Structures are given as C-alpha cells and as structure tokens.
Amino acid sequence: MDGGRTRRSVANGDGLSNGSPSDADVKGSRKGRGTRNGFRYTHRGYIAALKDSFGFIENEEHNQDVFFHFSVFEGNPSQLEPGQEVEFGLTHKGPKRSAECVRKLPAGTLGAQETVRPEIFSGVVERPVRCFNPDQEHYAGLVRQATTGEGEDPPTYEFGITSLTDKHDLLQKGDVVQFQVSVNSEGVERATNIAAVRTRIQATVEAIKGQFGFLSYEAEEGKKLFFHMTEVKGGHLQVGGLQCR
C-alpha cells in the first residue's frame, strides 16, 4: 500500500472473491452449542448487510463474510439490524458455502477483549467493506490515517461493520472519516468508532432501482454517486428530484 504500514485484522486478512469463506476462515467455532435441523451452531459473527431477502454475516475476526437467506433465520428477519450478534452453522452448496440456522445472540456475547486507544485520528477510506462494494476481493475495509508528519508513511487500518458508529453508513472510497484504533490481546490493531465527516452537496436523482439509486454527482470518472434508501432522511424521492449528501 504505497509503502504505508497496514494494520491487519488477522494474520492473512485476505477475502475471497466469490464471497464464500472456508470453515477455517469463518472462525469462532465452539462445540456443545446444540444443533437444529442437523446443523451445529459452530460459528458466530455479526450481521454485516441486509438486502431484500438475504444478507451477509461478518465473522468474529472481521476479515470474512458469509451469505445467508432470510428463510434460514430463526425469527422475524425484519427485526435484524447491521451489527447484531448471531450464531449459525455452515452448509455447502456446490463450490460455495452459506450460513444455516441463523439465530440472534444476546448483545455483548461476542465482546472481544479489545482496548480502544483514546486518540482520535482523521483519515480517508481507501477501501470499503465488501458488502458495500461486492466486486472487490477483500472483505475488510481499509482506512488510511491522515499524514502524521513530513517524510512519514501514514499507517492504514482494516475495519468491518462493527467498526462503524453508524452501521447503516455506506462508507465509500474517498470518504473522509474520524476514527480511533483498538488493539486486541494479541496486539492486532484495527480502526474502530469510525464516523464520516460529511459535506453537503446538492444533486439530482438520476435513477431509482428498488432499494438503491444514483445521483447526478460523479463520484469517480464515469460513475454516478450510489445511495441506498436507508440513507434517505425524510420525504419521498423521485427521479429528477433533489437529494443532498
């Protein structure tokens, strides 16, 4: 990463391009958690993203995600929220793997032994979490700390859905943020308490497709600015209307 120091959430930190982690990648296995429909609750994680009829779960190490369909959730899927703690089993479907028998855990069950350092840093998102950009190889997002001094390479830190102060905030590449750094018992650092520093821009709604749409503001060359309906604050959007970011 341009000579910068990358703080990785795990030793390898690599995502899988097909979004289908192996049993070893989706860690956190525990025996004796009981079974349902032949599946043992061997894995734990956090709800990372929710779509119309399916979602993704971030593993305990914050470096991989696994697909699940709402039909395998034990409860009402409409009550799920990003960041909620869950446990589940894994099943093979061809070359891919997905979660089965997903159920919620009490809040705080997965409380990792992490120490949050008091310093607050400014930085820029270099890579979003994969559930916000399905085309990327790595699951974990990456934030680069603002320049710390002349001649120094600013460090980078990985982050997942649990790192965001607003779990509905679809952070994208180039977003300016403030964050802190946490370190676990093994000395692994990651970004946490990430909050976007927003500017307000007026743009026209160019298209709406189900739960997302695009604005006339060009985020990158040839790419219009994406938004999800969860980002809309009040009122009803229509093509040709104005939206602020």
Structure, explained:
This protein is mostly beta strands. The chain folds into 3 domains: 39-104, OB fold (Dihydrolipoamide Acetyltransferase, E2P) (Beta Barrel), CATH 2.40.50; 115-196, Beta Barrel (OB fold (Dihydrolipoamide Acetyltransferase, E2P)), CATH 2.40.50; 202-244, no CATH class. 0% of the residues lie in helices and 43% in strands. It contains no helices and 18 strands. It has strands spanning 6-7, 35-36, 39-40, 43-50, 54-59, 65-69, 85-93, 96-104, 114-116, 121-127, 141-145, 156-159, 176-184, 189-196, 202-209, 212-220, 223-228, 242-244. The strands form 4 sheets. Strands 1, 9, 10, 11, 12, 13 and 14 form a 7-stranded mixed beta sheet that branches. Strands 6-5-4-7-8 form a 5-stranded antiparallel beta sheet, with no helix packed on it. A 4-stranded antiparallel beta sheet has the order 17-16-15-18, with no helix packed on it. Strand 2 (35-36) and strand 3 (39-40) form a beta hairpin. The chain is globular, with a radius of gyration of 19 Å. Mean pLDDT is 78; it is low at 1-5 and 7-32.
